[in-house]
Q: What sequence folds into this?
């Protein structure tokens, strides 16, 4: 199912600035950034961000409100063009690529405020995610000939498979906008997975969830990594979730990395504790 | 079971659309042949077909792509005049239906090319800005055609933007005479051709909407940022939908022009664009069967009101407002939802007792 997983043999030494130096997972990075930074006018939103995410790693990006976490995701998906630095995805630079091209290179994402295609059915939402793997030229779209039905059937089967992965197959024909909140979050992840990414970025996947939904989500994130053998990078404020499932954590404050390491190291890092509990903080800048 | 439901929702729209057109044709065509329809009414049939095609085309741009195009009459105009020029160039010996077919195809292609040329700058814009720029392009097209002089003689086509005398025609005939428009058009459009064009437009648009391309287009409408994030090339798909819409509009224009002996560029002005938009809005954005019904009714209405002479457009406006209010009335919507829910459970019971294999009924 996952195209990226086949390229495992490519050996790139993990940079010393990796989020987790010692791990029991595949260490070849799928995603690397070098001295990444962006300015908005005079404001430096992110600066000197150098991280690497292994091919089957679950990485966490945490930090107080306004630290620039979502900005990092927007940089990684080229919604914003970085002012400085480079992003390497599977060894290739994503500079001067558009958001849709970056997705085709292997990054999929979800959004902090859910962005589904609300008026389309659940099944169609996932089919839109499969867009680039459906081989159906315009001629066959219009005439319904030349492999239309086989391509539609293939898309349908794969979409149903993904929905079944999230136990949503019985909702396939419902309007996406009418789903309960938790299901909408899962659908967004299913849609992102449909693009066959090498790494999936989850922006606050547990926001607004109750404890039982959160533990289900944790289970799902692990299953995503194991089943599709892809990397997962998530922004989350739920420390229980982050400390439980992330193998490597990067802490941002005011756009700068203040700590990197395993959950244990992060928990005991004085700088992190200061950033969360210590001094006076600026009000929310951006999220 | 889910599969059946999904299939039938798509099938239901198809059956409604094609069914309506075929029934209307089956009733009207024999009556027309037998001379049972008055000249006044039969004269409306082809324009209605042309406007239905226009409304279907605009619904693709407004309803499915979600971009307000206020220059759609411009594409219709290009289709109309290129169609007129085409039949003037064609051999007289050719049978009329073949001529008409070629004219419609040429009209569609030229409108499509124009759609591409206009689309490239316009499609980068969004919302109000796109609406205003398409409006401007519509006016530009109208004004350019307004000062075109085209004639044909044995040497071929003559072309000028100054006056008819500059053409230096050696005999031959005028095709396009500036502000007077096209003159001496062969009236070769038929009701049958009109219905076939409607069916063609339905075929293209309904199939497109339920395909990879259509899903991409609808996804862009629903959430542009999310569509981009799943790897959809926004510009490509918006442009595709825009061009398909322009091609269909051009075809409608060619059909429309061939129904009159003279036609001027000012027929395809801003008012016409708005008229088509009204059909689409009243029929429902993204609702093709609704569009067909709305177009038919709203095109016939002003003709029916001729007896009120001066008050005609006033009454037309009042009716329009009343219909808009009624269709958006929450209570009426509620009532309709309840009735359709009742019908559905009724049907569902029937289907359960009837058998499993019945796809079209569910």
A:
């Amino acid at each position: 199912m996952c195209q990226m997983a086949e390229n495992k043999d490519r050996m790139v030494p993990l940079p010393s600035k990796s989020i987790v130096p010692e791990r029991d997972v595949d260490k070849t990075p799928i995603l690397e950034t070098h001295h990444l930074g962006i300015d908005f006018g005079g404001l430096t939103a992110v600066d000197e961000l150098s991280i690497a995410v292994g091919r089957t790693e679950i990485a966490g990006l945490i930090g107080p409100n306004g630290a620039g976490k979502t900005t990092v995701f927007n940089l990684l998906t080229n919604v914003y063009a970085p002012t400085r630095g480079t992003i390497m995805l599977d060894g290739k630079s994503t500079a001067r690529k558009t958001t849709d091209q970056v997705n085709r290179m292997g990054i999929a994402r979800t959004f902090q405020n859910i962005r589904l295609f609300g008026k389309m059915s659940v099944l169609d939402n996932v089919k839109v995610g499969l867009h680039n793997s459906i081989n159906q030229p315009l001629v066959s779209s219009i005439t319904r000939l030349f492999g239309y039905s086989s391509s539609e059937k293939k898309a349908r089967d794969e979409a149903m498979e993904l929905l079944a992965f999230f136990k949503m197959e019985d909702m396939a024909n419902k309007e996406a906008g009418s789903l309960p909140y938790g299901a909408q979050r899962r659908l967004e992840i299913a849609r992102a997975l449909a693009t066959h990414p090498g790494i999936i970025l989850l922006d606050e996947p547990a926001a607004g969830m109750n404890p039982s939904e959160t533990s289900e989500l944790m289970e799902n994130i692990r299953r995503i990594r194991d089943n599709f053998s892809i990397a997962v990078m998530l922004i989350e404020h739920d420390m229980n979730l982050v400390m439980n499932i992330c193998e490597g954590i990067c802490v941002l404050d005011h756009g700068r990395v203040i700590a990197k390491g395993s959950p244990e190291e992060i928990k005991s890092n004085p700088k992190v504790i200061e950033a969360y509990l210590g001094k006076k903080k600026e009000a929310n800048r951006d999220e | 079971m889910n599969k059946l439901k999904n299939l039938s929702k798509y099938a239901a729209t198809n059956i409604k659309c094609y069914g309506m057109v075929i029934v209307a044709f089956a009733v009207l065509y024999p009556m027309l042949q037998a001379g049972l329809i008055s000249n006044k009414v039969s004269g409306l049939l082809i324009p209605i077909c042309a406007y239905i095609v226009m409304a279907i085309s605009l619904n693709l741009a407004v309803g499915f792509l979600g971009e307000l195009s206020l220059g759609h009459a411009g594409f219709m105009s290009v289709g109309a005049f290129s169609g007129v020029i085409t039949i003037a160039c064609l051999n007289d010996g050719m049978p009329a239906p073949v001529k008409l077919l070629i004219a419609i195809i040429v009209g569609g292609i030229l409108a499509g090319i124009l759609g591409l040329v206009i689309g490239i700058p316009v499609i980068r814009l969004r919302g109000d800005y796109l609406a205003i720029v398409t409006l401007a392009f519509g006016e530009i097209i109208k004004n350019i055609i307004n000062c075109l002089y085209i004639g044909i003689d044995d040497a071929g086509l003559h072309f000028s933007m100054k006056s008819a005398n500059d053409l230096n025609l050696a005999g031959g005939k005028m095709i396009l005479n500036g502000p007077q428009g096209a003159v001496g058009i062969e009236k070769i459009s038929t009701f049958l051709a009109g219905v076939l064009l409607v069916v063609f437009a339905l075929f293209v648009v309904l199939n497109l909407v339920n395909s990879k391309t259509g899903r991409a287009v609808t996804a862009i409408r629903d959430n542009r940022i999310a569509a981009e994030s799943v790897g959809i090339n926004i510009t490509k798909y918006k442009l595709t939908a825009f061009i398909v819409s322009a091609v269909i509009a051009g075809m409608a224009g060619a059909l429309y022009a061939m129904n009159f002996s003279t036609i001027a560029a000012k027929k395809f002005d801003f008012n016409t664009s708005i008229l088509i938009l009204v059909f689409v809005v009243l029929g429902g954005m993204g609702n093709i069967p609704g569009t067909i019904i709305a177009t038919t009714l709203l095109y016939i209405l002003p003709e029916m009101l001729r007896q009120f002479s001066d008050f005609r457009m006033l009454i037309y406006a009042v009716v329009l407002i009343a219909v808009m209010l009624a269709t958006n009335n929450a209570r009426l919507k509620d009532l309709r939802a309840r009735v359709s829910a009742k019908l559905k459970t009724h049907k569902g019971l029937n289907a359960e007792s009837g058998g499993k294999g019945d796809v079209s009924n569910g």
